[in-house]
Specification:
heterodimer; A: about 375 residues; alpha+beta; Alpha-Beta Plaits; DNA polymerase, domain 1; Dna Ligase, domain 1; 3 domains; five-stranded mixed beta sheet; four-stranded antiparallel beta sheet; 14 helices; B: about 400 residues; nine-stranded antiparallel beta sheet; eight-stranded antiparallel beta sheet; 7 helices; 27 strands; about 40% strand; elongated
Chain lengths: ~375, ~400
């Protein structure tokens, strides 16, 4: 049985800012663009969250909810440096570290931990301590070295570890024991399942699935019929089964390029033109990484911050602009046609367009040195 | 719908009734070259079966055979001398008929038609029968009774086409950019084409309008499909006119006629980009270089550049008065050449799609070329020094590491 830890920094960007700016401590802080620009909240401190401010919320809305909210410009280079410090701490405990973002990672400590993961004692054995003890030690190291708190989840697979880390935030440590795993999942509301988004959750609610127990009632074939291939994954996580490995140096899963418009755009030709630029850049990025993929995803963010994605998967690899562009344009047109653009239902203004290619083909890894020296080329246009 | 409109016209009424048997003798070479010219515009999957055919009209009075191919947008007509025993008309499947004629041995051919629209082709090697369709249903090429006329010397027309056609967009979705924009003034004509990455503009002088016909009162402009003009270029090269070529326009059509050839094309609709304002007038850097030297260096650079992303880097060295061209195709190879040049302005490193540079340099007919630019991310202008009056603008490739 594996022993997996998921470590998640608490309100990472906001906590770093509160650490470095004493005047922000104990106060509602939002990291992100100021409300007079068209900014959005990248991270909110716990004080701000009490007012209903959360990440990805337009800054303007955030100020309405919390008028004394302090806006701080993000300092990504600082977050990157802190993230590196944290990763260095992880590597003291295991080599099997899979960073998910700057502020979270999975660790596989099966080799390092004692045989009995249920032995939830904080007894510090020199060589074989429990996974929970390792998680505790990691949290302590992070606090000592960065003055920041993290929450950790401990269990037998990634799915459960990730849910566990969210159970006791902030500064939490939560263990889901193997024998308790199935019961835990059965009682979990479906929207808390990692990987079940708003849309899927709504669909599951319509189908009468409210909790893990409801999900478990469903046969695998029926889940696949209702949700596609991912239904197989739902079938397994309902049984607390998740065989996904913790993958150090996990390969990039997708390559994406996005453009936000200085002014919101309603005009379809202008969007097509932007798509062309994005497609060219995406192609360039793929060429630089010497890869191609089979799934193209279009992302549209409207001025009201509603975000929609549409994907299409082809039987063959998508590698050239000539392949990307018609597909992207078709996805966009279908989307725009479906939401309006008629005199009665005018086009909603769009603030951001993006394209990503996923389902990447495996290519020989290039050496770090030549990756670093790969510049990005972009053919400039006349109009 | 469009097809119906064309059905209102019929081939010239002076010809014999369609049902009469036709008989003519010509050479395999003549029939083959003229057939291949019109076959090029015959659509492979026509909207109406008869459009897959070529129209053949044998005229007993003029002793000529006229061939027509038409896809309702682009039409090509050509004629050649033959012994016409009995005049008549018929349409024959272009591909099939052409494939047979092209494989026949050189020498005389006779073509006879029966009342049942079957053509019998007799050559030295044997004979073939091909089923045709009555010419009655074949749409006639558009005619322009009114409209503007420009008279252009053959050389000027070819220069304009050669200098612009390569810059049209190959992307059918780009509509108006797939064409060449013609601006016709009383004394001159401007050819312009752009695909959004580069722009080619050629100015030519019209033939003297002494005959009065070319006396244009005002200028006007149209956008002509690149495909039509490529066919025109080919036809003019194969059958050059001895005198000027007449180009007629109205709102929807272009008709070019000379001697025994005629080409008609619908025009592209839509606003053509206001390209004149895109051409910078002031430059901080200017380079003069021998055309052949830079073109042949770029050809060699392109061998490697074509392997990856077509990118060539150009370094201006004013101290050395030289231009260094380099290519770096990761995992393939790299190359570098230095060409002497007269350079004014500060040193600069600028990157281009090597194909765009070569496309322009190939159509220049001068010994020296001038390059003018401001920065590595603004338009670069190439002009032949003394030669065609041509401006070729190329947008650079931005390099970000």
């Amino acid at each position: 049985m594996r022993k997996i830890i998921h470590v998640d920094m608490d309100a990472f960007y906001a906590s770093v800012e509160q650490r470095d700016r004493p005047e922000c401590r104990g106060k509602p802080v939002a990291v992100g663009g100021s409300p007079d620009k068209r900014g959005a909240v990248a991270a909110a401190s716990y004080e701000a969250r009490q007012f209903g401010v959360h990440s990805a919320m337009p800054s303007r809305t955030a100020v309405q909810k919390c008028p004394h909210l302090i806006f701080v410009q993000p300092r990504f280079e600082v977050y990157g440096a802190v993230s590196q410090q944290i990763r260095d701490i992880f590597y003291r405990y295991t080599d099997l570290v899979e960073p998910l973002a700057l502020d979270e990672a999975y660790l596989d400590v099966t080799e390092q931990a004692g045989d009995d993961p249920s032995q939830d004692s904080f007894v510090e054995l020199q060589s074989r301590r429990s996974a929970t003890a390792i998680a505790h030690a990691i949290k302590a190291d992070i606090l000592a070295e960065t003055q920041l708190t993290a929450s950790a989840g401990v269990s037998i697979n990634k799915f459960l570890a990730k849910i566990a880390s969210g159970m006791d935030k902030p500064d939490g440590l939560y263990l889901i024991r193997p024998e308790a795993a199935e019961a835990f999942v059965a009682n979990l509301p479906i929207e808390k399942f990692h990987g079940v988004g708003e849309v899927t959750a709504a669909k599951m609610h319509r189908l009468g699935i409210q909790t893990g127990a409801d999900l478990k009632e469903w046969a695998e074939v029926d889940l696949v019929a209702a949700f596609g291939k991912v239904g197989r994954h739902y079938y397994r996580i309902a049984r607390a089964i998740d065989d996904r490995l913790v993958e150090p140096n996990r390969m990039r899963k997708s390559i994406g390029v996005e453009t936000s418009f200085a002014d919101d755009v309603c005009d379809r030709p202008a969007m097509h033109q932007a798509l062309e630029q994005i497609a060219t850049e995406l192609q360039q990025r793929m060429a630089d990484k010497d890869t191609s993929g089979r799934t193209l995803t279009l992302k549209v963010k409207y001025a009201d911050y509603q975000q929609v994605t549409r994907s299409r998967t082809l039987p063959e690899a998508i590698a050239t602009t000539a392949q990307i562009l018609p597909l992207a344009t078709a996805l966009l047109d279908t989307l725009l046609d479906s939401v309006g653009d008629t005199p009665l239902r005018p086009q909603k203004p769009v603030r951001l367009l993006g394209l990503a290619i996923a389902n990447l083909t495996i290519s020989a890894p290039s050496t770090p040195s030549d990756r670093a020296s790969h510049p990005i080329y972009q053919q400039l246009t006349l109009f | 719908m469009a097809f119906q409109a064309f059905m209102l016209h019929f081939p010239t009424p002076t010809l014999l009734s369609h049902s009469a048997a036709m008989k003519l003798t010509c050479t395999q070479a003549d029939l083959n070259t003229h057939l291949s010219l019109v076959s090029r515009v015959v659509p492979p999957r026509p909207s109406h079966p008869i459009l897959a055919n070529v129209l053949l009209i044998a005229d007993g009075d003029t002793q000529r055979v006229k061939l027509t191919g038409f896809d309702l947008s682009l039409g090509v007509q050509t004629s050649f001398a033959a012994e016409v025993e009995t005049g008549g008309t018929l349409t024959l499947p272009a591909k099939l008929f052409g494939d047979i004629v092209s494989r026949l041995p050189e020498g005389p051919l006779t073509l006879e038609t029966s009342e049942e629209q079957v053509a019998t082709l007799t050559a030295l090697s044997g004979h073939y029968q091909v089923r045709g369709i009555s010419a009655e249903d074949y749409p006639s090429l558009p005619l322009l009774e009114e409209g503007d006329v420009a008279m252009l010397p053959v050389e000027a027309l070819l220069e304009g086409l050669r200098g612009s056609l390569f810059s049209t967009s190959a992307d059918e979705a780009k509509q108006v950019l797939t064409g060449v924009h013609l601006t016709v003034e009383p004394e001159s004509m401007e050819f312009a084409a752009t695909d959004g990455h580069r722009l080619a503009v050629v100015q030519t002088t019209n033939a003297g309008g002494a005959d009065g016909e070319a006396a244009l009162k005002t200028g006007f402009d149209v956008t002509v499909p690149g495909k039509a003009l490529r066919e025109l270029e080919r036809m003019v090269q194969m059958h050059p006119a001895t005198e000027s070529i007449a180009i007629r326009f109205d709102q929807g059509q272009l008709i070019v006629e000379w001697e025994h050839q005629r080409l008609t094309s619908r025009l592209l609709e839509g606003q053509y980009p206001n390209y004149r304002q895109l051409i910078p007038r002031q430059f901080s850097r200017q380079i003069t270089v021998e055309r052949r030297a830079i073109a042949s260096a770029l050809e060699r650079i392109a061998v490697l550049a074509d392997q990856k992303n077509n990118i060539v880097k150009m370094m201006l060295d004013s101290a050395q008065q030289s231009l260094t061209l380099s290519v770096d195709a990761p995992d393939v190879g790299s190359g570098r050449e230095t060409v002497p040049a007269q350079i004014s302005g500060e040193d600069l490193e600028i990157a281009f799609n090597v194909r765009y540079l070569l496309d322009g340099l190939k159509v220049f007919n001068s010994t020296e070329v001038q390059l003018q630019c401001n920065t590595a991310t603004s338009p670069c202008i190439l002009t032949p020094l003394g030669g065609t009056k041509m401006t070729y603008l190329v947008m650079p490739v931005q390099v970000r590491s």
